[in-house]
Amino acid sequence: MWESETESVSGRDYGNGVLTASKNGVKTDSFEQKGQSWYVATDIPSDLLVQIEDVSFHLHKYPLLSRSGKMNRTIYESRGAELDKISLDELPGGPEAFELAAKFCYGIAIDLSATNISGLRCAAEYLEMTEDLEEGNLIFKTEAFLSYVVLSSWRDSILVLKSCEKLSPWAENLQIVRRCSESIAWKACANPKGIKWQYTGKPTKGSSPNWNQMKDSSPSRNQQVVPPDWWFEDVSILRIDHFVRVITAIKVKGMRHELIGAAIMQYAAKWLPGLIREGSGLADDGRNISNSINGTSSGSWRGGLHMIVAGSGDEVPSVQAKDQRMIVESLISIIPQHKDSVSCSFLLRLLRMANMLKVAPALITELEKRVGMQFEQATLADLLIPSYNKSETMYDIDLVQRLLEHFIVQEQTENSSPSRYSFSDKHMHDGIQRGTNLNAKMRVARLVDSYLTEVSRDRNLSLTKFQVLAEALPDSARTCDDGLYRAIDSYLKKAH
């Protein structure tokens, strides 16, 4: 780990994040900026103009070719043409990264930080600043800083991964994304006991501590207990593809599935704001999530889960719809397979968005099966999903029919699966299982009856669809037919 403020790698000092190189050819202490142009503070006239986007750098050939294989080759191959201008619009990191790389070539001290290291590392690779040209070149220096400084810090790993969003595919090919994701996952899964750094999602005073400085083998009694969701806010700022990488790495390391599910729900609440309707009775969801995390029967954590999709007829802008579709598809693919890793209400709201955004059919089917696994936890409000496929009915009756079929199949599968218990415990387990399944069926039956009563007001609801949904459950699921009678009465009187 990078513990002290001044460390060295093979004898090359970083000086508290300040990177220097030996003076090379042109004596100067600084660059000067005039408008969109940079000049070297020296009396020697520049003999090379480097253009990157709308920024120009008036430099000298020798300091650049002595450390950059790309500049060396470009200048060498065009000797006869007296090359005096080069365009590097494809350089990753843009003008900011090239400014630092150029200063390094001139021997000017540059400050390395979590905000500039990924761009500088990619720029160094693009410019081919390898050890073959000179020992202690920029690739080596930036690699060492990434490995020994950035990856030892939680906050810096987050910031670097966030900065990689503008550096594709360079950051991916150089394994910066993978290494940061692994570092974040490892720290998220580590025992949080003794972490001094309170909530990492909040701004901190001064520089962030290293990971090993965040732990204390003998924390004081008055130290705040770190909640298990301490890492949620920080990972929720990541772009969806990087968030998926982090969650995937966390899964591999064996984190509890309910924690992963809660992190996914918080991410969804943060990045899908255009489809949120507040005040929709989600307090129960918040309590359920909090209970599953803390292992208690009560709690105040809410997780920001306010994700009932407004069933308006307004068209979502195409760019926004594309981004939201990508988020929904990605979230569906990383939800843990364990039952109750996320709430049924969340799954149904995600399913509503998936239908509206025309998510890939295979993912919608997978999501429907997941809802079927815990369908008894659904509420009537969750099931009132508008029909987005130009159906005659106001609500998507066919979708609810499929969800019910998945629930029945799941129940039958659980009943027919081989028992893991010993013979002496088998009868007791079978009895408990039958009771649990019967209670689930009864709750689903009441839910279906309430749903039928609600949708019966739709004059376009055909008798066939009404009957198929009413008869989907076996007779044993209903101990009382009053709810079904009310639905039939509503269907006959109010609309038909």
Short account of what is shown:
Pfam families: NPH3. The protein is mainly α and 496 residues long. The protein has 20 helices and 9 strands.
Order of strands side by side in the largest beta sheet?
4-5-7-6-8
Q: Report the biggest beta sheet as strand number plus sense, adding barrel if it closes.
A: 5 strands, mixed
The portion of residues forming beta strands comes to 5-15%
Give me the strand/helix succession. EEEEEEEHHEHEHHHHHHHHHHHHHHHHH
How large is the radius of gyration? 30 Å
Morphology: elongated
CATH superfamily of the domain at 30-152: Potassium Channel Kv1.1, Chain A
Number of strands: 9
Query: Within the CATH hierarchy, at the fold level, what is the topology of the domain at 30-152?
Result: Potassium Channel Kv1.1, Chain A
Q: DSSP helix count? A: 20
Give the CATH level 1 class of the domain at 30-152: Alpha Beta
CATH architecture group name of the domain at 30-152: 2-Layer Sandwich
Fraction in helix: 40-55%
